[in-house]
Amino acid sequence: MTELLRRLLQKPQGAIGVALLVMLTLVCLFGPWIAPYAPEKMDFLGRFRAPGWQNWLGADQFGRDVLSRLLFGARSTLPMALAATLIGSAAGAVIGTASAYLGGKADEIIMRTNDAIMAIPGLLMALLLVSTLGNGAGNAVIAIAAAFAPGMARVTRAVALAVRNQDYVKAASARGEGASWIVFREMLPNVMAPIVIESTIRVSFAVMLFATLSFLGLGAQPPASEWGLMVADARQYMHQAPWVLIAPSAAIALAAIAFNLVGDGLRDALNPRAER
Q: Measured between alpha carbons, how far is 160 from 154 in angstroms, rounded to an integer?
């Protein structure tokens, strides 16, 4: 682990991405304690106040402090995106590995079904599922996870096909181990590298997708300070008070960039050929 971190920090994109992730983690952990105001505290005399000493990032249409709402909103936006990515990646990894191990007609049926689901764009799939399940942050997480699972299954299967022919998998079969044991104990641990890289990159898409659902009113609901919801509330005031829109948009972009940089850094750090 220490060696991996060293190799990751040697790459410029990895070092910058890790620094940004550390900053975002600190914001999630300590944001509510360092926020200057409560996220729902209104000051109607300060509506659309420009950034200054009273409100460092300005105030919104209700006089609420934009910085405070960003700091509180990080606790909903980032953990939700991480949860959706973890659930979708785990489900896809299990499906892809099991399909590679089973092979034959079972593999054909699973992958053709997977390809049919992948033909539906991720955002459209998430919208269909949220519309079916109902609005709310929890249902948005489930929808994003379901949209991510097919792609992760395809990536995992490609790696697991090579792992299936390794001697330790054949030895486990010769010992009489069951399919679940072989999939979870023998194959999955040996395909983790591409799963970790792909999952890290997909977090950035989850952040933007979760923000999009909230923007459309299908994710977090008012008066939550989720970043996508803040953008949705601010879009009609962008000409009057652009800082209300710029701040949450920049936060979403920063989070997406951070996870993308870490994913690129991990890809290089976990690639022994590139290291040589």
A: 10
Number of neighbours of residue 238 by Cβ within 10 angstroms: 14
Which among 263, 267, 160, 158 has a CA at the least distance from the CA of 202? 263
- Strand, helix or coil for residue 45: helix
| Residue-level pLDDT at 65 | 94
How confident is the model over 111-118, as a mean pLDDT?
92
Q: What is the Cα–Cα distance from 214 to 116, expressed in whole angstroms?
A: 27
Question: What residues contact residue 60 under an 8 Å CB cut-off, 6+ apart?
Answer: 47, 48, 66, 69, 230, 233, 234, 237, 241, 244
Q: Which CATH class is domain 2-275?
A: mainly alpha
Q: Which residues pair with 59 in a beta bridge?
A: 65
C-beta of residue 96 within 8 angstroms of C-beta of residue 67: no
pLDDT digits (tens, 9 = 90+) for 5-37: 788 888 888 899 999 999 999 999 998 899 999
On whether the CB atoms of residues 74 and 28 are closer than 8 A, the answer is yes
The CA distance from 30 to 8, in Å, is: 26
Using one digit for the tens of pLDDT, what is the confidence trace for 43-60? Answer: 888 889 999 998 999 999
The answer to whether 126 touches 214, Cβ cutoff 8 Å, is no
DSSP class per residue in 243-271: HHHHHHHHHHHHHHHHHHHHHHHHHHHT-
